[in-house]
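Troubleshooting entry. The earlier prediction with nicotinamide-adenine-dinucleotide gave an output that would not parse, so I re-checked the input for stray whitespace and re-submitted. Clean input:
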Amino acid sequence: MQQYYTDKVVLITGGAQGIGRGMAQAFSGVGARVIITDLDPEAGGDALAWLEAQYLKAEFYPCDVSQEDQVQHLMEQIGQQYGHLDVLINNAGIASPARKPLAQLPMKEFDQVLAVNLRGPFLCAKYALPLLEKALHPAILNISSTRAFMSEPDTFGYSASKGGLEALTHSLAVSLGPQRIRVNAISPGWIETGLWQKEGAKKEPNHSPQDKAQHPVGRVGTPEDIAQAALFLCSDKACFITGQRLVIDGGMTVKMIYQE
Ligand SMILES: NC(=O)c1ccc[n+]([C@@H]2O[C@H](COP(=O)([O-])OP(=O)(O)OC[C@H]3O[C@@H](n4cnc5c(N)ncnc54)[C@H](O)[C@@H]3O)[C@@H](O)[C@H]2O)c1
């Protein structure tokens, strides 16, 4: 991977914390020029210091991916700095502020989740396009969720946004195929991000035996589990893969549960 990613320009949205931070660590570790963008500038600064302590590098640009003018400005900045973009990872995402029954869910909250999780990746793809077209093997990776195809009660906006993101993935793959841009999705299951948060928000993982037992592999996932697959999917080793979703959930969604 080192050989492939040396000097490749990789943009990770929501890259300051959680899974995005884990991907920033992995891509920087194989020599990519990592650009983290995030809504939270404090978390952005914290992520850069965290990477630096591991002798890794990244740049940080603040941006709210749901805002068209901010996304447009971000891509202009990247264009001026690098002239092209090899990999766009649409990772920024939010869950509903609080789970609420259908009748009590304010439209504002539903719309906000869709604006970040679905409009955001669309805007980023749209404005990154001229930069991706200038790359040798461009790739887009959308971070979806197993909630695209299964739900807990009262998670309307989140499930709908991730279902939409998976549909957007195949739509982009088909539309951008002629420009040689591959587009795939990863659908993570339960990923523990407590140790990948900014200072003050870090949490020690604490998983019960039942939590672990829900997973055929016997544990909850980590950002590294997602990052390793992202490295593969965005590289030329995956050059015949486009329009696909890869479920990474330790087997949770294939486990049949009978309650006696
Ligand atoms: N952690 C899980 O169990 C899990 C499971 C399935 C899917 N996912 C998906 O993975 C992605 C990352 O999730 P995570 O758990 O690492 O989340 P996280 O909350 O730990 O990190 C998300 C980051 O995105 C940033 N962000 C939020 N809104 C933004 C916006 N409008 N513009 C730019 N940045 C914004 C946040 O500031 C934060 O730094 C999300 O798309 C999420 O839906 C997570």
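This one parsed fine. Strands lie at 9-13, 33-38, 59-62, 87-90, 139-143, 182-188, 245-248.
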